[in-house]
Design brief:
Layout: H1 3-9, H2 16-31, H3 38-49, E1 54-57, H4 64-74, E2 75-76, E3 79-83, H5 90-94, E4 95-100, E5 105-110, E6 117-121, H6 128-131, H7 135-140, E7 142-145, E8 148-151, E9 157-162, H8 175-178, E10 183-185, H9 192-202, E11 215-216, H10 217-228, H11 234-249, E12 253-255, H12 259-275, H13 283-294, E13 299-300, H14 302-306, H15 311-320
């Protein structure tokens, strides 16, 4: 039995209530290390249930890498880290075939993408060629090296970080690469009380070292299956499409939300409903996830950018001007 068949056989039944308990345990465990808005932490956990990838964009030192590590340690799955630098090669990410003199054959040595949770630190510091090495594995859950395709296990999640204030020696992600990320999240600076508590907690010890798993791969696979099985009314599908079409017709926008972005909205909305213990999706679920799912996919016209308009502003306007199904 191969890895994918074994993973499918390992999926145990898990209702909405059971899945909600698993997700809540993970969120609470991450909170022990990261002091950030609850919704941001919750969305980072929802991404793995929605089988999506996350890009964390914020100033240096706010805990982006720490969040990725805390999430990986909260779930008993494999974790790898790839530090993206200008000299990193695509084979350093995907793996390489090496000639074995004993067997007189080439052997494939897997790269860091062969894992369950992959942290890509400072993704915009690597060259576009190396960034592109992630495209296939993020979209198709597989890696092709020397004409041979290797499937990736479930779950598989990429958490990428980047600093928006650093432009020297960076390569901005192209739109096609950004579209592979299901969510764009910002941690922001913690509240005064939280930051003071952080100093007290981490001045002597790293709380990450004492973090223990509260779920395993089977829990995650069961939650993924439960989220996929959630009921969605046809009117909600049309609601998502109406929001997308509003972004496409906005005069401030060169390129609006794609059909793939609509699928991402619905998948995260399903995960959010599951986290609330429901077996159905509501319009509020869609409203709550629209901005983090769609904002980085909106390409603004130059005149809109010059006035300080952001993709998030466009998405909020689209949600606000789209009739909610009754």
């Amino acid at each position: 039995m191969d890895a994918s068949s074994q993973a499918a056989a390992d999926v145990r039944p898990l209702g909405a209530t059971g899945a909600a308990e698993v997700l809540e345990r993970i969120v609470e465990n991450v909170k022990r290390v990261i002091h950030a808005p609850d919704e941001v932490l919750r969305l980072s956990v929802l991404a793995i249930i929605a089988e999506g990838h996350v890009i964390l964009e914020d100033a240096p030192g706010v805990g982006k890498t720490q969040l990725a590590k805390a999430l990986a340690r909260s779930v008993d799955v494999r974790f790898s880290r790839a530090q993206f630098t200008p000299d990193l090669l695509p084979s350093d990410v995907t793996g390489v075939s090496v000639f074995n003199q004993k067997t007189n054959e080439f052997e494939f040595r897997p790269g860091p993408v062969f894992t369950d949770i992959l942290l890509v630190d400072e993704i915009n510091r690597a060259s576009p060629k190396t960034q592109a090495a992630l495209l296939e594995c993020m979209q198709e859950r597989q890696v092709t090296v020397d004409g041979v395709t290797y499937p990736l296990d479930v779950p598989f999640m990429v958490i990428a970080t980047q600093n928006p204030i650093e432009y020297e020696g960076t390569y901005p992600l192209p739109e096609a690469q950004l579209d592979r990320f299901m969510l764009l999240l910002h941690l922001g600076y913690p509240e005064l009380a939280d930051e003071a508590r952080m100093l007290a907690e981490q001045a002597t010890d790293d709380p990450l070292e004492s973090l223990r798993p509260v779920a395993d791969g089977a829990d995650i696979r069961a939650a993924i299956a439960a989220a996929k099985a959630l009921h969605v009314e046809e009117s909600l599908n049309r609601y998502v499409v109406a929001i997308l079409r509003h972004t496409r017709s906005d005069g401030r926008v060169v390129l609006g939300g794609s059909p793939r972005s609509g699928i991402a909205v619905m998948r995260v909305a399903k995960a959010r409903a599951l986290c609330d213990g429901r077996d159905f999706v509501t319009p509020d679920d869609i409203k709550a996830v629209a901005v983090p799912v769609l904002s980085h996919r909106i390409i603004l016209a130059p005149e809109a950018r010059s006035t300080g308009t952001s993709g998030a502003d466009v998405v909020r306007d689209a949600v606000g001007h789209t009739a909610v199904p009754i």
